[in-house]
Amino acid sequence: MDPQEFMSSDNFSSLVERGIDAGTSLALAAAILIIGMMVAGGVRKTVRNAAIKSDRIDDTLGGFFASLAYYGIMAIVVIAVLNRFGVETTSLVAALGAATLAIGLALQGTLSNLAAGVMIILFRPYKLGDFVEVAGQAGSVKDITLFTTELATGDNKKVIVPNGAAWGDVITNYSANDTRRVDFTFSIDYSDDIDKAMKIIQDTLGADERVHKDPAVFTAVMAHGGSSVDIVTRVWCNSGDYWGVHFDAMKNVKEAFDKGGISIPYPHQVNVSREG
Length: 276
Hints:
Helix content: 40-55%
Shape: rod-shaped
Distance between the termini: 136 Å
Strand order of the largest sheet: 4-3-2-1-5
Strand content: 15-25%
Largest sheet: 5 strands, antiparallel
C-alpha cells in the first residue's frame, strides 16, 4: 500500500478512532476492575466486621460469608471487564454454570457437609467445650469447622464427625442447660424398713453440697422386684457436677445403708444335693 494512501485523511481518521475506542475500552475496563476490587474488598471487610460484632454469627462463618461476597463481586467484575473488550460473556457464563454444576455433582457429599457446617455454626446446637452426642458418638466438642466436628471422648480418643452426619441426626447436648437431674434406683430387701431406707437416702444425698435443695431430693417406691423393693431417687445439680454427684452417691448410700442396717439384695445360689 502506498504510504501516502495509507496516511490519507480517511484512513488516518479511522485509525485514530480505533485507537480512541481501544483506549477508552481499556480505560473503562481498568476503572471497572479497580472500582470493583475496591467495592469487593470493602464488602468483605464490612461482612467480616459485622460477624465479629454479632453474637449470633461465629467467626468461622463470618469469614466464609466475607469470602463468598468478595469472590461473587469479583466474578461480576471480571465478566464486566471481558464484556468491555467484546468477549461474548453469555457463552462464558453458560460454560461456568455447567462447570459449577459438574463440580457440585462430584462434590455433593462435601457440599452437604459444608451446608450442614454453616447451619451448625449459625444455629449453634452445640459449641466448643460442650459434651454432646452426635451421629452416635459422644464426647466434648474440641473444634467445629465448615466440614467436620471434632470430639474428644471420655478416654481421650479423637473422633471426627462429618457435619452432614451430625446435622442430619439427633443431637443431644448434655451441657446446654445449667442444671441436670441425676436418677438413681436403690434396691433394698423385702424385710427392710422402707421408710427408714428412704430417709437414709434423702439425708445422705441432701448432705452433698452439690445437690440442689430446690427441688428437694425425691424418693419413691418404683417397683416390687423379684427379690427387692426398688426405690427411685432423683436429685438436681449443676451440669458440671453430674458425674461427681452420681459416683459419690453410689458409694455414700451403700455405706449409709450398712450403718443403718439396710441390706442390698443380691443373687444367691443354693446347691441341692440328691441322694440315691
